[in-house]
Amino acid sequence: MRERPFIIGVSGGTCSGKSTIAQRLLDTIGTDGLALVKLDSYYVRRTHEPMEQRAAANYDHPSAFDWALMREHLAELTAWRAAPVPTYDYSIHDRTDIVDWVQPARIIVVEGILVLWDADLREQFDLKLFVDTPADLRFIRRLQRDVVERGRTPDSIVAQYLATVRPSHEDFIEPSRAHADVIIPEGGLNRPALDMLLARVRELAD
Question: Does the predicted model carry a pTM greater than 0.90?
């Protein structure tokens, strides 16, 4: 039997730098050695909801995600089978009908704001990381990202941040850092921490 993959959970607040770390790991190891699974792919379907209702939903609350499907797909990857990961379109606040077949690999990285919140998922991780970045920097990054990449207005971003993002961070995301094995301040900007992590992952990939 093949050895069980090494699974890394990467969590942190919105725009903390967790995606940067996950992507650096993928770029370093490559898709042959590392499978990347993003929590954002598992937002629940909202096809039945009007656009106004979708836009007002709390996407930072645990109820926004299909945890059962994510755990099912992680089990498939752990068993060295490909997983049909859904794709998500931020412009329509819903999943698309496109499926991304993620191939199994020696290392699996699971990245997302709440991946350390879910106990069943958390128990699967061999290494749990929490990216800790000050709230003001995270908000500025989110503002810039959502304007440029998602076509949203500054007013709508501020309203969403105050109504759902900030409260959910305080209630769910920040408390989940207590489950982390390693806390990385400043995310991808923390070069020494990132270099140490990359060195460890290279050892596992060999």
Answer: yes
CA–CA distance, 12 with 173 (Å, rounded to integer): 7
Contact by Cβ (8 Å): 165, 2: no
Predicted pLDDT of residue 1: 57
Q: Which of 186, 151, 191 is nearest to 13 (CA)?
A: 186
Locus of tokens 């093949």:
2
Nearest to 25 by CA among 185, 154, 193: 193
Domain 6-201 sits in CATH at 3.40.50.300
Q: Which pLDDT score, from 0 to 100, does residue 130 have?
A: 96
Considering only CA atoms, which of 14, 62, 23, 22 is closest in space to residue 42?
62
Please give the Cα distance from 155 to 118 (Å, whole number). 32
Q: Where are the domains of the chain?
A: 6-201
- How far is it, in rounded angstroms, from Cα 82 to Cα 194? 28
